[in-house]
Amino acid sequence: MLNKILSSLLLLLFLQQAAFALEDNTAVSGKVVDKKNTPIPYATVTLMRTDSTVVNGAITDDNGVFEITPVQYGTFLLRISGIGVNTVTKKGITITQDNPKFTMGKITVETTSQTLQEVKITDNRPMMEIGIDKRVFNVERNITSSGGSVSDVLQNIPSVSVDVDGSVSLRGKAGVTILIDGKPATLLGGDEASALQSLPASSVDQVEVITNPSARYDATGMTGIINIITKKEKKFGLNGNFRVGVGTQDKYNGGLGLNMKNRKW
User: Fold this and answer.
1) How far apart are CA 93 and CA 183, in angstroms?
2) What is the rounded CA–CA span in Å between residue 244 and residue 242?
3) What does the alpha-carbon distance between residue 229 and residue 204 come to, in Å, rounded to a whole number?
4) Which domains does the chain have, with CATH numbers?
5) How many CA atoms within 13 Å lie on the side-chain side of 85?
6) What are the backbone dihedrals phi and psi of residue 61, each rounded to the nearest 5 degrees, phi first?
7) What is the full DSSP assignment across the chain?
8) 250 CB-near residues (< 8 Å, 6+ apart)
9) C-alpha distance from residue 145 to each of 72, 158, 207 (Å)
10) Torsion angle of alpha carbons 12, 17, 22, 23, nearest 10°?
């Protein structure tokens, strides 16, 4: 009796191993293409039972080819999905002992185009940045500096004053050196006041106020240095201004300033 039971168990074990061996040779394969017969790489191919239970899966290669193995015997669904691909489901995939390999051939899918929304980049710089040896004022963050000249910009900066003659003082003291992009403002022609009046505020990006100049600066600017940094994009052009000032005790002043821009300034 015991021998019969052992023999039956061995027979069942043998049949089960044989069945698994057969299933190891099973596979579902195919190729995913679009309507123009172009291979679809990196698409997800999922093999499911008819109740949508996932059995196995694969990813298409660079040529759109896939192979799912091993597969159990039964009837399945095949789902193809991925980025830029409309999901497709195929039915009637049957794997049996007599038909262990199922070839799908070419599976045509529809591709979808995705339009990215416009991304707007805004300038989040603060109005004033404090460094180790200087303060930096971001002019575009100050709506009061949208028009006029650079002299008007400087009047809106704390501790900086501009008198009726266009002379600049820092913390109430004269003797301030004015630079434009690190170069003396007088290179524009005339004195510093004329240069500041002739340069439009719209061309300025930042203003650096250096209250304790280092040794690399000229001693004439020991009161302080104001470096006006213009916008990177410069266009050829000519602009200017005419000013007249009237004071008490028969004091008058006037001036004419011209400024020509080029890419090498």
Assistant:
1) 78
2) 7
3) 6
4) 20-108 (2.60.40.10), 128-261 (2.170.130.10)
5) 25
6) -85, -170
7) -HHHHHHHHHHHHHHHHHHHHHHHT-EEEEEEE-TT--B-TT-EEEEEETT--EEEEEE--TTSEEEE----SEEEEEEEEETTEEEEEEEEEEE-SS--EEEEEEEE--B---PPPP--------SEEE-SS-EEEEGGG-GGGSSSBHHHHHHTSTTEEE-TT--EEETTB--EEEEETTEEGGGGSS-HHHHHHHSBGGGEEEEEEESS--TTS-GGGTTEEEEEEEPS----EEEEEEEEEE-SSS-EEEEEEEEEE-TT-
8) none
9) 75, 14, 12
10) 100
Q: How is residue 135 written in tokens?
A: 């303060």
Closest CA to 171 of 197, 209, 124: 209
* Residues of the chain below pLDDT 70: 1-24, 113-125, 141-147, 188-189, 214-222, 233-265
Altogether, the residues listed in the chain come to a count of: 265
CA distance 58 to 66: 6
* Residue-level pLDDT at 198: 81
pLDDT of residue 216: 60
pLDDT at 256: 53
Alpha-carbon distances of 139 from 4, 83, 107, 213, rounded to whole Å: 98, 45, 60, 22
| Confidence (pLDDT) at 252 | 55
Distances (CA, A) of 245 to 162, 164, 215, 234, 251: 13, 7, 37, 31, 8
pLDDT at 100: 92
Model pLDDT, residue 246: 55
Residue whose C-alpha is closest to residue 55's, from 44, 71, 42, 43: 71
